[in-house]
Structure prediction request, 650 residues.
Amino acid sequence: MTATVNETAPVTEALELDHVESHLHPQPSYDVDTHPVPTGREEIWRFTPLKRLRGLLQGEPSDARLNWEQKLPEGVTLTEISTAEAQALAVSAPLDRLGALAAANAGGAVLLDVPSELVADEPIRLVLRGDSVDDVVWSHLVVRVGTHAKATVLIDHAGSATYDAFTQVVVADGAQLDLVTLNDWADDAVHAEQINIRVGRDATVRAFEFTLGGDLVRTSTNVDYAGPGGSADLYGVYFADAGQHIEHRLFADHTAPRTRSNVLYKGALQGQDAHTVWIGNVLIRKVAEAIETFEQNDNLVLTDGARADSVPNLEIETGDIAGAGHASTTGRFDDQHLFYLQSRGIAEDEARRLVVHGFFNDIIRRIGIPDVQERLVAAVEDELADV
Amino acid sequence: MATLEIKNLHVSVDTEDGAKEILRGVNLTINSGEVHAIMGPNGSGKSTLAYSIAGHPKYDVTEGEVLLDGQNVLELSVDERARAGLFLAMQYPVEVPGVSVANFLRTAKTAIDGEAPKLRTWIKDVNAALERVTLDPAFAQRSVNEGFSGGEKKRHEIAQLELLNPKFAVLDETDSGLDIDALKVVSDGVNRYSGQGDRGVLLITHYTRILRYIQPDFVHVFVAGRLAETGGRELADELEASGYDKYVKADAAAGAAGAAAGA
Ligand SMILES: Nc1ncnc2c1ncn2[C@@H]1O[C@H](COP(=O)(O)OP(=O)(O)OP(=O)(O)O)[C@@H](O)[C@H]1O
Ligand SMILES: [Mg+2]
Prediction:
């Protein structure tokens, strides 16, 4: 264990950056007290219905766990480590109170380790299931992908839970990771998670996030770069029904030159008080010359009474960038699409279904796990059947 | 034999200053086996006529009927009209992201026929239809019209015409934006369709160029929201030589006389 900790030490050193005066960049810290209890007016909390977090913010200790099942390709290991070991391994500290509480209360961390140069042909599958919302579950997971390794990790959330997780992903130089997260919870689940991804030199990460269920889901995905040439694609699909709050916060922190970030999130909303929030923050630091970034969020509002908030935010501190942009659309069905399909004899409800599938397929087709693709297509079909 | 009758059709669109009348009493009967060409200047209302027949929600029919074998299609939804046997090849075909051509065509064919096509022959039929309009079969895997060039979109419309094989086809400027080779390909497609003998075509165009490849039985001049003149093929030649001026002036004069008589 000690040897592997040392192996990642240079990464820490590589990231000694000037402090940035930016609300995009709160001081990362494991110390819960440095992250005050939110009032709900803060920029990072203002969209979240704090009461519905069911006391997660109070940080009441708990030993409850989700039920884990895993399928690991040969060479990949899943072990328990101490919080101190986790902190040494994965250097990206929590950026908000929920992240700090999860790390502090989880009583240690789980390390998913893909050794250097291992190419896993089969996806690594973690199924995390809850069976009650009564006890708070804290979780701390570290995913480490060694140099030039290649893996697909599926984290499949299901069932009922009141769950707060801190997940750290360290992708070493030249490694390739697909991280697919399914938030396919039962209707009563509350799920908060901070996912901090550190992209190594010339490493490639594609993160997919699918949020279908839950009463409240709030995830913050933060990406930074340990060296030049790293690339991150962050894809998301969400489908909110009546009363559901789904919030996805993305932060691409360009901490190294010639890095790339691409964010594409697509959501559909239907029913009274279905509420989705997408925050796309990008910070391009002074050192981050010749980087490329693009972020896009599209929302399809299927019925009255639903609300989609979409906030892109770009801060640039260097004059030398290869490309930066963002786009955000929120709308109802495009009448032209429906007219075209209907003019070929396709009935209106079928036409709507085709358009929604088309909207999401753009992302679903990119996932490299066929059974997950099929499951998501079916899940979208199910959601639409309720319209 | 089938008939499509357009009777005293008046159509308005909503504008910021209230409803604006675009079609001012169109009368036209098309029998199966016939090819009618409609020619008219920009803005005269040709696309409005095409869209109104197909049922586009933007257009408001204030008077008149469109009868398909005696049934008023204006009472039907857009998809019902298509299933009744109408087809519109659009001037600007719509891009539908994420919906593959293959899925789109199969869904449309199933809707039109009331049953799913036989899988084995259908794929062959689709590939053949695409190849006939010189589209690579790989187009079947692309999203409907997304990123297609102008000419590819038009050829895709004709492939659909052949696969869905409606009773009547309205082709709105299917010839515009095509180079000469594509124009021939599209014309051949229309001729194969009308050559079945029991299909009707309403061909809307700006240019006489396409009438070198498609022989119309009737040529209509369309000016300011109605038919100003009807003739045979020779009318197209006359329009090519002298343009629409004569008809535009006559319509304006008639309008002025009408206003004077009304005063
Ligand atoms: N929303 C609208 N508001 C105002 N005028 C409109 C509106 N929609 C259509 N029109 C007008 O209706 C008229 C007829 O348009 P239409 O597209 O039917 O003409 P067209 O004969 O097909 O022209 P083209 O040859 O350019 O294709 C035009 O003058 C157009 O500007
Ligand atoms: Mg037109």
Summary: Helices of chain A lie at 2-14, 83-89, 97-105, 335-342, 348-364, 370-385. The first strand of chain A starts at residue 67 and ends at 71.
